[in-house]
Amino acid sequence: ALHSEAAERAPYTMLVVPLFFETLAYRTCAHRTLLVDCPVGSQMERVKRRPGLDALDARRIIDAQLPRTIRLQLADDLIWNGKMVETLVPQVGELHSRYLCVAAKAA
Questions:
Q1: In angstroms, how far is the first alpha carbon of the chain from the final one?
Q2: In angstroms, rounded to a whole number, what is the distance separating the alpha carbons of residues 55 and 45?
Q3: Residue 42 in contact with residue 82, Cβ under 8 Å?
Q4: Which of 57, 99, 62 is nearest to 79 (CA)?
Q5: CA dihedral 12, 17, 18, 21 (to 10 degrees)
Q6: How far apart (Å, rounded) are the C-alpha atoms in residues 10 and 84?
Q7: Virtual CA dihedral for 14, 15, 21, 26, nearest 10 degrees?
C-alpha cells in the first residue's frame, strides 16, 4: 500500500515499478524518477536467465519497452548497473543522501 504506517514515518518512499515509464498510472505518484540502467547486452543476458525464455523471447521483451534513450531522458536520477555489484553501493549511498536532502527541504 502506498500509504502504510511505515511509509508515513519514512523520510522518503520508493516505488519499484519495472516498467515505470511505460505505465502512465504511476507518474502522478512520483516526485522523482530513478532509472537503473545497464548495457543492452547485459539486459539480454539477464532476461534470458528467466525460466523458459530464450534469446528471441528476450529480444521481444526488450523491444516492447520504451527505447533506452527515452528512458534516460525521462529519468531524474540514474544508477548504472553494468558492472560489478560493488559499484552499486556508492551509487545507492549517494542517491540516498540526495533523497534525504530533497525530503528535508520538502518537509
A1: 22
A2: 8
A3: yes
A4: 99
A5: -100
A6: 29
A7: -120
Residue (of 104, 107, 102, 80) closest to 31 by Cα position: 102
Whether 2 has a pLDDT exceeding 70, the answer reads no
**pLDDT 10s digits, 40-73:** 889 888 888 889 988 899 899 999 999 999 999 9
**What is the reported pLDDT for 26?**
76
Q: How far apart are alpha carbons 72 and 37 in whole angstroms?
A: 8
Cα–Cα nearest to 38, from 65, 68, 18: 68
Please tell me the distance from the alpha carbon of residue 102 to that of residue 89, in angstroms, as a whole number: 20
Query: Side chain identity at 25, as an amino acid letter?
Result: A
